[in-house]
Design a protein that fits this description.
Number of strands: 5
Low-confidence stretches: none
Order of helices and strands: EEEEEHHH
Largest sheet: 5 strands, antiparallel
Radius of gyration: 13 Å
Mean pLDDT: 89
């Protein structure tokens, strides 16, 4: 499944009840970088970097969920990132920590 630049929901295998939702901005063999969506505020509010080995399940948002976003501010986060530098877990942390 191609998930770069897609709105996704992921479940990680480290915690049963924890689900992350947001925009996948960079998916590589080792990592998945996401701009997280906060449902309470209806906006994107932070980055998360996952090791793919910890991702248990990935689902795409349906059109109703995408159309239901109240604040579409994800580009503010993406514009700050140097995605070409974010190829490993370490380089992703280093790039994201600049902000």
């Amino acid at each position: 499944m191609v998930i770069d630049n897609k709105f996704i929901e992921i479940k990680i295998n480290l915690c049963e009840d924890l689900i992350y939702r947001g925009l996948c901005v960079n998916y590589k063999s080792e990592i998945l970088n996401m701009v997280n969506y906060d449902e309470e505020s209806g906006s994107f509010d932070r980055y998360t970097i996952f090791r793919n080995e910890n991702v248990e399940d990935v689902c795409l948002w349906d059109e109703d969920e995408i159309n239901g976003m109240r604040i579409n501010n994800w580009s503010e986060y993406i514009d700050r990132l140097s995605l070409e530098e974010m190829t490993t877990f370490y380089s992703s942390l280093k790039a994201a920590s600049k902000f």
